[in-house]
Design brief:
Layout (H helix, E strand, L loop, with lengths): L22 H17 L3 E2 L2 E4 L15 H7 E3 L6 E3 L1 H4 L5 H6 L7 E6 L5 E7 L4 E8 L2 E9 L2 H17 L7
Length: 174
């Protein structure tokens, strides 16, 4: 059920370590992910949100679904490998509520093709400094990633959002 705003969203753990979650924290995070996207499918505009359920070989998250690992890790600029990201992991439970409340003014929606010319849907919450990206995988939408927005991302998102609105006669809210 949609909320009037997203003020209620808070980090999941006050004591989440920067290097890795405890096994109890990982169990709770994975539980949110499974509940929000596997056990209780989410439909947006008639399209189901799907996940990559292939099993990860990441040393910290071996055997977990790839989308889950992608949502709680980020690619290192040094090693080009995915590394645990505390800020992403601590907000995993934000993804579904933001998508369910995408019609709120807090959530800016735009579409943009990636480098492979596949259309992606962005749900950006500037106030929360958080974005969710879904990729069109006909007939569904793949939960690609979600992350905290830094200043570089913010500049790009503002530009892409403005360009998207310029292509539409009236802003499209999804």
């Amino acid at each position: 059920m949609p909320q009037e705003d997203l003020e209620y969203l808070e980090v999941l753990f006050e004591d989440l370590d920067i290097d890795r979650p405890t096994s109890e924290q990982l169990f709770e995070m994975y539980g949110y992910f499974l509940n929000d996207f596997v056990n209780n499918p989410l439909i947006i505009n008639g399209k189901q949100i799907i996940v990559n359920n292939a099993r990860s070989s990441h040393p910290l998250f071996r055997g977990k679904m790839e989308t889950f690992v992608h949502v709680i890790t980020r690619k290192s600029g040094y090693t080009n490998k995915r590394q645990y990201d505390r800020d992403r992991a601590n907000r995993i439970h934000w993804i579904r509520p933001i998508l369910e409340n995408a019609s709120l003014p807090d959530v800016l929606f735009f579409e943009k093709e990636n480098d492979e010319r596949v259309n992606q849907h962005f749900y950006w919450c500037p106030r929360l400094e958080f974005v969710i990206i879904l990729r069109e995988m006909s007939p569904d939408l793949l939960l690609l990633t979600a992350f905290c927005v830094d200043n570089d991302n913010k500049k790009n998102f503002k530009k892409w959002y403005t360009e998207y609105l310029g292509h539409k006669k009236t802003p499209l809210r999804k």
